[in-house]
Amino acid sequence: GTHVYDGHGALSAGASSRLLYDYAEPVRSQILDYLYLPRFGASLHQVKVEIGGDSQSTDGTEASHQHIRKDLNCHRGYEWWLVEEARKRNPKVVTHALAWTVPSWVGNDSFFSQDNIDYHISWLKCAREEH
After folding, report:
1. How does pLDDT run across 94-121, given as a tens digit for each residue?
2. Phi-psi bin for 16: left (phi > 0), alpha (psi -120 to 50), beta?
3. What are phi and psi of 40, to 5 degrees?
4. Residue 28 to residue 127: CA distance in whole angstroms
5. pLDDT above 90 as % of the chain
6. Which H or E element spans position 119?
7. What would you measure as the largest C-alpha separation in the chain, in angstroms?
8. Are 47 and 10 in contact, with CB atoms under 8 Å apart?
9. Residue 89 main-chain phi, psi, to 5 deg
């Protein structure tokens, strides 16, 4: 079959890029420019972020957009910030997301559940409506 180059990107997960948020300006903006500006530096076409689940997944804990079922906050955590910064530099950047963990209320500790589907849909609505 024919392979088509679809672009390249980076993954922010396991709290690995949390430190970038704390960098002082102008260094933080310069790093983001090198990552996401088209035809400059890495010129990444995709950004993949972790859907935070309030649990330790690898290097750190990422905040959930829903600590409990009725606690929806579409601005919690730093992954939204990273997506917005990438889009400022490249409005065509493709966003992907994954969850390595979910809060314990989701499915009563059962990952594969209707609660989990609803949890992910609420994240997608946050992405579409708030970011």
Report:
1. 999 999 889 989 987 677 899 999 999 9
2. alpha
3. -150, 130
4. 23
5. 63
6. helix 114-130
7. 47
8. yes
9. -85, -30
